[in-house]
C-alpha cells in the first residue's frame, strides 16, 4: 500500500507523542513493504528519507493556531497531486481539510488525540474550534482512531460514533544508565521526577506545590518548558523559588539522558489530565519508574493497579512521603508498571493494528 501520514511535525521525532508514533509506526510499516510517505515541517536538516519512509518537507505559518492547519493544507495539496491509497491524519484540528481527501476518494483515518478543547491555552474561540473539529472528524473520516478506551467512550457518548482503539507503544528499559546520571549530577534513585510541558492541564504547578508541602528528603527534578504560556511558567518559577529542593532544569533533548532520568527516579509524578494514552506516562512505565499520577480516567486506564494517584496538593504530599518511607513497595509498583507496558503497549502490536486498519480502509 501507499500510506500518507499527515498532520505532525514529522520525523525524526524530536517533539511529542504524535511524532514518536509516526516514527515508530511508519518505520514498521515500511519494513513490512509498504510505501510510507511522511509530511514534515520545521526540520533543520531536511532528510529525503528516514528509516525506510519517504519524507516530504513543506513550510508552515509560525503561529500556535495556524501552524498545524497551514502545513496540513499544503500536505493535502501534495497528496492530491501524488496519489496515495490511504491517508492517516493526526490531530482533529486538521478536520476542515478532510473533504478534499474525501472528494478525491482517498480513505482517511483521523487520530483525534485527547480532549484538546479542554486545554487552558485556547480561549473561547479556540475551544469552540476544537469542539467543532471533533464533529467534523467524525463526519468526514472513514474511521476515527482513539488512543484510549476513555476516548472511545467519549466519541460514542457525545457523537454516537464508533472508533478503533490503538494506543501508543512504550519503550521498555531493563536497566538504568547510572554512570550517565552521575556524570550529569543526578544520584540514581535520589530524586522525584516531573516531565511535562508547562501547561495548566498538566498540573506542574500543583505538583510543585504538593511536593513543597511534603517532608520529602529527595529533591524534585522538573523537566520541561512552554513556548507560549508565559504567565503559567512564571507561576511555576515563583513556586519553585520558595523551595530549594525543587530543581527546574528546562527541556532535556538528550534522549539517552531522558531515558536515564525516568529509569533512575524514585518516583515519576504525572499531572497530565486531558489526553488519552500519554506517551510520557508510557515512557515512565517502560522505564520501571514508580508513578504517581493525577486522578483522571485516562491515567487510571493506563496504569491500572501499578499506579498511585492524587487529586490535590495535600494528598500528593502524603503519597510522596509514603513513597520515601517505603521504597521497596515503590519499586514493586515500578516493576509492575514496566511489565504492564511490556504486555499491553508494544510498538510492534501498535504498528500491526495500524496495518490492519489501513487494509480495512483500502477495502
Characterize this entry briefly:
With 363 residues, the protein is α/β, with parallel strands linked by helices. It is built from 14 helices and 14 strands. The protein folds into two domains: 2-169 and 346-362, Glycogen Phosphorylase B (Rossmann fold), CATH 3.40.50; 178-344, Glycogen Phosphorylase B (Rossmann fold, 3-Layer(aba) Sandwich), CATH 3.40.50.2000.
Tell me about this structure.
The chain has 363 residues and is an alpha/beta fold. It is 45% helix and 16% strand. The protein has 14 helices and 14 strands. The strands form 2 sheets. The chain has an 8-stranded mixed beta sheet, with helices on both faces.
CATH topology of the largest domain, what is it called?
Answer: Rossmann fold
By CATH, the architecture of the largest domain is named 3-Layer(aba) Sandwich
Chain-averaged pLDDT: 94
Instruction: State the order of secondary-structure elements, H for helix, E for strand.
Output: EHEEEHEHEHEHEHEHEHEHEHEHEHHH
Uncertain segments are: none
Structure annotation, total helices: 14
Biggest sheet descriptor: 8 strands, mixed
Major beta sheet, strand line-up: 3-4-2-1-5-6-7-8
Structural class label: alpha/beta
Domain Glycosyltransferase subfamily 4-like N-terminal: 16-168
Keywords: Glycosyltransferase, Transferase
Organism: Herbidospora galbida
Protein name: Glycosyltransferase family 1 protein
Amino acid at each position: 500500500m501507499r500510506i500518507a501520514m499527515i498532520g505532525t511535525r514529522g520525523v525524526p521525532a524530536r517533539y511529542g507523542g504524535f511524532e514518536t508514533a509516526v516514527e515508530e509506526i511508519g518505520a514498521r510499516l515500511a519494513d513490512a513493504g509498504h510505501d510510507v510517505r511522511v509530511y514534515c515541517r520545521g526540520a533543520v536538516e531536511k532528510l529525503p528519507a528516514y528509516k525506510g519512509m519517504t519524507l516530504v518537507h513543506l513550510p508552515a505559518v509560525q503561529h500556535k493556531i495556524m501552524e498545524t492547519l497551514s502545513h496540513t493544507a499544503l500536505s493535502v495539496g501534495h497528496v492530491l497531486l501524488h496519489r496515495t491509497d490511504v491517508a492517516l491524519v493526526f490531530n482533529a484540528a486538521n478536520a476542515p481539510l478532510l473533504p478534499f481527501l474525501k472528494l478525491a476518494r482517498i480513505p482517511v483515518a483521523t487520530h483525534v488525540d485527547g480532549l484538546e478543547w479542554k486545554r487552558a491555552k485556547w480561549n473561547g474561540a479556540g475551544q469552540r474550534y476544537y469542539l467543532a473539529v471533533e464533529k467534523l472528524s467524525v463526519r468526514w473520516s472513514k474511521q476515527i482512531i482513539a488512543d484510549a478506551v476513555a476516548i472511545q467512550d467519549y466519541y460514542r457518548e457525545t457523537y454516537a460514533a464508533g472508533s478503533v482503539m490503538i494506543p501508543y507503544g512504550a519503550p521498555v528499559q531493563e536497566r538504568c544508565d547510572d554512570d550517565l546520571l552521575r556524570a550529569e549530577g543526578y544520584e540514581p534513585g535520589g530524586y522525584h521526577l516531573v516531565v511535562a510541558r508547562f501547561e495548566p492541564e498538566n498540573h506542574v504547578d500543583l505538583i510543585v506545590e504538593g511536593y513543597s508541602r511534603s517532608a520529602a528528603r529527595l529533591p524534585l527534578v522538573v523537566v520541561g518548558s512552554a513556548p507560549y504560556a508565559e504567565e503559567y511558567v512564571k507561576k511555576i518559577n515563583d513556586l519553585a523559588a520558595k523551595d530549594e529542593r525543587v530543581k527546574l532544569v528546562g527541556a532535556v533533548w538528550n534522549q539517552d539522558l531522558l531515558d536515564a532520568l525516568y529509569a533512575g527516579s524514585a518516583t515519576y509524578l504525572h499531572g497530565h489530565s486531558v489526553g488519552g494514552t500519554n506517551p510520557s506516562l508510557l515512557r515512565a512505565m517502560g522505564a520501571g519508574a514508580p508513578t504517581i499520577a493525577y486522578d483522571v480516567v485516562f491515567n487510571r486506564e493506563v496504569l491500572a493497579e501499578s499506579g498511585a494517584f492524587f487529586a490535590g496538593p495535600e494528598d500528593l504530599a502524603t503519597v510522596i512521603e509514603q513513597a520515601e518511607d517505603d521504597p521497596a513497595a515503590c519499586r514493586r509498583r515500578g516493576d509492575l508498571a514496566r511489565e504492564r507496558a511490556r504486555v499491553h503497549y508494544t510498538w510492534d502490536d501498535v504498528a500491526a493494528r495500524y496495518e490492519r486498519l489501513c487494509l480495512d480502509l483500502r477495502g
